[in-house]
Specification:
Layout: H1 17-33, E1 40-43, H2 47-55, E2 79-81, E3 89-94, H3 96-108, E4 119-120, E5 123-124, H4 127-142, H5 154-158, H6 161-165, H7 167-173, H8 176-188, H9 195-214, H10 224-237, H11 241-268, H12 281-294, H13 304-317
Parallel strand pairs: 1-3
Antiparallel strand pairs: 2-3, 4-5
Amino acid sequence: DFDIIGPYFTSLKTLESKFIYSCVMETVKLFYLHGLKTLLLVCDGASVNLTTLKATHGHFGVYPITCGDDHEPFKVSPKMLNPFDPPNHIHWIICPSHQLKNMINALFSSQQNGTKDFTLKGVKFGWETIVSLYKRDCERVSKGLTRMVPKMKEAYVIRDAWTKLNVAPAKIMQQDQVLMELSNYIQENPNADDVCSVSITLKFLEACQNFFENDPNFDHASSTQKSFLAWQNTVLKHYYIHFFTLAFDLLRIDMYGFKGFCEDFFNKYPGYFISPLCLFGSSIESLFSQYKYYAGGKLDSANNAICRASNLIQKTVCSHHSGVGYRDNEMSTAVLPLKKKIYGQKNK
């Protein structure tokens, strides 16, 4: 087992793709000199990172919709030759949680005085629907009723810089409780002024859920090509054009990047297997941000051990008493035929 921190690179100006590329190459070189092989790189889909990623395999700008062969027209090859360990390749994938955050943050930017204008067939839609949802939930509480979206918080609606980086608020926005609340509002208020806007926003969030939660098109038994065709048809059929243009490149990098990595790995190491327990960069960012806080903003190899110890001590000392044998006795409850309500499925 290895605990590797860094290397860290500082920049006195805005990050550019050339600088990012040099940092990646320097890191791969250092790992190679210490006997470590680099097979896969994970990053978010930010503009500079995406530009660097595509440049490593000869692409600039948006991928052509079809750039593969007749068998797999959507295929891309997000990989590059390892210059320090040829002929081995280094594959790329996009952090899935960052993709979800990008989609929800884009919707947030559609609010008044925002940076994006979400208009479809003359109807403006976007974050105002989420704000109205939260207000309706607050009205339910004032009347002594139960919230329809219990996990929704005011901070998730106002969204400061930290909330935009957090995965949990983004996940809530595209889960069943939010979709069910919006669907009920449309059914109960068919003549409301904002019903068209709410309906389109609901479709946008449905597309997010299909992508990140439970789309049958991405069943593990399906071929990659069939998945893309089914997903593309779904996107175009429901006019999720905003979602399509934002996510299609990242989706192709994820699927073909991981697929290529697995093929290379199994060819080099037959008899072994890959267990992708976690590919989320956000969890790593959260951990390192705490380390950086303990280091006063200057985290390096010299103070990493101290910062890690401080983090472990805080978790041990400040842990809630409910985690240590608090009310562990088994409760006697009546057996009730309770079924979880799932959005989009009718109760039989």
